[in-house]
Amino acid sequence: MFKKILIANRGEIAVRIIRACKEMGIQTVAIYSKADTEALHKQLATEAYCIGNAPSSESYLNIDQVISTALLSGCDAIHPGFGFLSENPAFARMVEKCGLTFIGPNPDVMEKMGNKAEAINSMRKAGVPTVPGSYKAVTKEEGRKIASEIGFPVLIKASMGGGGKGIKRVNRIDDFDYLYDEAREEAIKFFANDEIYIEKFIENPKHIEVQVMCDKFGNVVHLFERNCSMQRRNQKMLEEAPCQSISKDLKEKLYDSAIKACKFVGYDSVGTLEFLVDKNENYYFIEMNTRIQVEHSVTEAITNVDIVKNMIKIAYGLKLPYKQEDIKLLGCAMECRITAEDPANDFRPNPGKITFMHVPGGMGVRIDSSVYTGYSISPYYDSMILKLIVFGQSRLECIRKMRASLEELIIEGVTTTTELHYVILHHPTFILGNYDTSFVQEFLKEFDENVKRVR
Ligand code: ADP
Ligand code: ADP
Ligand code: MG
Fold first, then answer.
1. Closest Cα to atom 22, ligand 1: which residue?
2. Mean pLDDT of 363-377
3. Whole-model pTM?
4. CA distance linking residue 298 with residue 225, whole number of Å
5. Rounded to whole angstroms, how far apart are CA atoms 97 and 110?
6. Superfamily for 132-200?
7. Looking at 16, 291, 337, 366, which residue is catalytic?
C-alpha cells in the first residue's frame, strides 16, 4: 500500500482524506496557503508545508509547487480531493510522469468525461439518454440555430464548467447572443476555456445521481442514487439517499446506464453520473464528476462503504472487494451543506472568526468539517464550512434526527445557513419528498418577503 500521500486540497475534504489515510496506516502530507496557517488539515496531517499565497492560483492550483512538495517530502501518491486540481488531466498526467500515483481515474478517461460536451457525445454512443442539444462545442451562430430548432428555453453551458458556474438560461431568441457572450466570458474567467454547448432546458427536473466504484480490472459497481434536487443557482444545498420519489423501475434504468457508461469509457476510479429526471420519468445524462464528491458521505451512510478508502485502494491497483450483491442498502441518509453565507443578504459570503461552536452528536450523526471555535474563515475559498450528515432507518427518522441536530448546532460569530436548512427541514414540500430543482428558488421568494417584512 502507499506509504505517504500528499493531499492537494484544503477544508473538510482534506480532513476527510487524512482520516481515511490514518485508518489505513498511511502517512499524510498537507499543503496549505498563507491564509490557511490555522487550518485543521494542516494540524491533522503527519507533515505540512506552506506552498504559497492565499489566492488559489498561487497555492492550491500551483501544479509545480504541489508536485515538488510531494516529491521532496517522499510521497508516493497525490489525492486531489474535489474542486482545485481534481479534474485537471494535465495535472494528473504530470503527477504520473513524475513517478507518483494520481488518486483518481486515468487522465485519458478524465479528459474524455471532463469535457461535458464530449462526455455527452460519448454517452450517446454508449446508448445512454442525453438532453437534446448541440452535443458538441458550438459558435454563437451554430448555437443560435440549434436553439431555434430544439425550442426555447435552452441552457448555454461551459464545456469545462463545474460548481454551477457558467450556465445561462435563455428564454427567447432575442436574448441568445448576449447571454452566449456572458457565458463565454464566465467560462474563460472560471475555467480558462471558452468552449460553449447548448442544451434544452428541462422543466422542473429532479437531479438524481448514481455513485459508482470501478477498479482497473473492469469491475464496476454502483452504490445506489442520491437525490440532489435541493439546489440554489444550480448548486446543491442538501442531498439525500435513496430517492423516495422515483420508481424502482427508473432506479434500475439509472443504475444500468451508469454501469454501461463506465464500462464504455473504461472508467477506473470512484465517480458520479448525474442525471435529470422529468415529470414523466424520462431521464437524461448531464455530466460525470470524475472525482470524489461533496455528498459522498450520504452514500457511505446508507451502504457502510468507505468510498475514500476504496478510491485509494483502487489507485494502488487493488481489485474491488465487492460484487454488486455485496452492496446493501441499509437505511436512509441526508446531508446539509452548511455555508458561511447570509441567506437574508443574497447569500453573501460571510467570512470571519467563529467565536463559539458546538456540534451535535449521537447515533447516526456525522460531522465533516474543518472549522472550530476561534478559527477564522478565509474569504479566499469556498464558503462551505461544515457538512452535517444523519442516518436513520426511515426517511422520517432522518428528518427528525436532522432537525434535532440542526437545533444542537451552534456557530457564533459568522452568519451561516443553519437556520435556513432548519426551515427547509420543516417545509411540507420537503417532508413529502417529491421536490424538484425549482423548489429552493420558489421557497426563497417566500423567505425573502418575510425577511423584508420584519426589517
Ligand atoms: P459536487 O457534486 O461534489 O457537489 P460541485 O460541482 O458542487 O460538485 O463541486 C464541488 C466543489 O468543487 C465545490 O466547492 C465547487 O465550488 C468546486 N468545483 C467544482 N467544479 C469546479 C471547477 N470546475 N472549478 C472550480 N471549482 C469547482
Ligand atoms: P455543474 O457542472 O456546474 O455541476 P451541471 O451540468 O451538472 O453543472 O448542472 C448543474 C445543475 O443545473 C443541475 O443539477 C440542474 O439543477 C441544472 N441543470 C443542468 N442542466 C439542465 C437542463 N438541461 N435543464 C434543466 N436544468 C438543468
Ligand atoms: Mg453537476
1. 162
2. 98
3. 0.97
4. 10
5. 16
6. ATP-grasp fold, A domain (3.30.1490.20)
7. 291
